[in-house]
Design goal:
With 305 residues, this protein is α/β, with parallel strands linked by helices. It has ten helices and 18 strands. The chain has helices spanning 42-48, 66-69, 72-81, 96-107, 163-168, 176-180, 195-198, 241-246, 252-262, 280-287, and strands spanning 4-10, 24-29, 32-38, 56-60, 88-93, 115-120, 127-130, 134-140, 148-154, 160-161, 185-186, 192-193, 199-200, 207-211, 229-233, 266-270, 293-295, 301-303. The strands form four sheets. Strands 6-5-4-3-2-1-18 form a seven-stranded mixed sheet. A hairpin with a 7-residue loop joins strand 8 (134-140) and strand 9. The radius of gyration is 22 Å and the shape is globular. The chain starts with a strand and ends with a strand. 39% of the residues are buried. The model has no long low-confidence stretch (mean pLDDT 95).
Length: 305
C-alpha cells in the first residue's frame, strides 16, 4: 500500500503566537503533493518538512481570512525564484482571483510558470479535482465568509497478482494488466480460470477530510461519514462555547461529536485559539466524546490508514 500522508505545517488560528504557525497542510499521496491553506509561516514549516517544494501540484484555499491565505503570494514568488516551470493549480473562493492577479502583476512579473486559478462554489459538495488515483471534493462549512473544507478520496486500485498462479497457468505477461483489472483467464484448452483464483483484492481505499473554520454543524457528519482521518477545527474549549458560536468556530467537544457521529477512524484537532498556552484541555474534552482524538502540531506527519 502506497503512503497517504498528512504533513502539518501550521495549526494555529488568526493571532500569531510563538507556539504555532497559521493554518497549512500538505497531503502526500502516490507521489503527488497538495497543499491545503497557506497561512503565514508556511514556507518555514515546508522547509523543515521532508516535502520538496517542486512536488507541489495544487493549492486549495478554504476561505479568505488571512491566517489561511496570507502566505500564498510569498510561496508563489519563491517557486519563481527556484525556477519552477510546471503550472500551479490554485483552487479557492472566486473572490481571491482578482486580488491574486493584482499581486502576481505587482510582485511576480515574468514568473516562469502559469498560475491557473479555479474558483470554488463553497455552498456545494462537488468534485473539484480528479486524476487517476484520487478525487478532491468540497465540503460546505458555516463560517463568517464563504468557506469550505476538502475531502481527499483515494480511487480503488487494481487487484494483486498471485505470481504462483500466473506461473501455474502459464499466463502471458501481455495479459497481466487485464487480470489486475478483474478479467478471468481462458486457457488454450478452453477452461475458464476465475479472476479470484489468480488475484487477491485491491487495497482498501482511504480518505481524509479537512474541515476548516466553521461553526458546529450537526449534519456535517454526513459529508465525512467513515473517513479514515478527519481534521476538524477546535478553536476553543466548551467553556467558550458562546464565543465559538459568535465567531463561527467550534469547540473541541463539538469537533469530537462530528467525528463520533461520522464513525471516522481518527480525529485531528487544530486551529487553536491563542488564549491557550497548551492544548491538553482541548484534547481531554475531545477524548471524552471520541477517544481516537489527537492534537495536531507543526512537524507532525500522520498516515491515513
Amino acid at each position: 500500500m502506497e503512503p497517504f500522508l498528512v504533513h502539518i505545517l501550521g495549526c494555529g488560528s488568526a493571532l500569531p503566537t510563538l507556539h504555532h504557525f497559521a493554518s497549512s497542510q500538505i497531503i502526500e499521496m502516490r507521489g503527488k503533493c497538495f497543499m491545503v491553506d497557506c497561512g503565514e509561516g508556511t514556507q518555514i514549516s515546508l522547509r523543515r518538512s521532508k516535502v520538496r517544494f517542486t512536488k507541489l501540484q495544487a493549492i486549495f484555499i478554504s476561505h479568505l481570512h488571512g491566517d489561511h491565505c496570507f502566505g500564498l503570494i510569498g510561496l508563489i514568488s519563491t517557486f519563481g525564484m527556484l525556477g519552477r516551470t510546471a503550472p500551479l493549480q490554485v483552487y479557492a473562493p472566486a473572490a481571491l482571483e482578482p486580488m491574486l492577479q493584482a499581486q502576481l502583476e505587482m510582485f511576480c512579473p515574468g514568473l516562469g510558470f502559469e498560475v491557473e486559478f479555479h474558483p470554488l462554489d463553497t455552498t456545494l459538495s462537488q468534485v473539484v479535482y480528479e486524476d487517476k488515483s484520487l478525487t478532491v471534493s468540497t465540503i460546505p462549512l458555516d463560517h463568517r465568509i464563504p468557506c469550505c473544507g476538502f475531502l481527499f478520496k483515494e480511487k480503488p486500485g487494481r487487484r494483486h497478482i498471485l505470481r504462483d498462479m500466473i506461473d501455474c497457468y502459464e499466463i502471458p505477461i501481455s495479459q497481466i494488466d487485464n487480470i489486475k483489472n478483474g478479467k478471468d483467464w481462458t486457457t488454450p484448452d478452453g477452461d475458464v480460470i476465475e479472476n479470484s483464483r489468480l488475484t487477491t483484492p485491491a487495497d482498501p481505499t482511504r480518505s481524509y477530510a479537512y474541515c476548516s473554520d466553521t461553526r458546529y454543524m450537526p449534519q456535517l457528519y454526513r459529508l465525512v461519514e467513515g473517513v479514515n482521518l478527519l481534521y476538524h477545527e477546535s478553536t476553543y474549549t466548551e467553556e467558550c462555547k458562546e464565543r465559538a458560536k459568535l465567531y463561527y468556530h467550534s469547540t473541541a467537544q463539538q469537533a469530537a461529536t462530528v467525528a463520533r457521529d461520522a464513525h471516522v477512524g481518527k480525529l485531528l484537532l487544530g486551529h487553536y485559539s491563542a488564549r491557550y498556552d497548551d492544548e491538553e484541555g482541548l484534547l481531554k474534552e475531545a477524548r471524552a466524546i471520541f477517544p481516537e482524538s489527537y492534537l495536531s502540531n507543526e512537524g507532525m506527519t500522520v498516515a491515513v490508514k
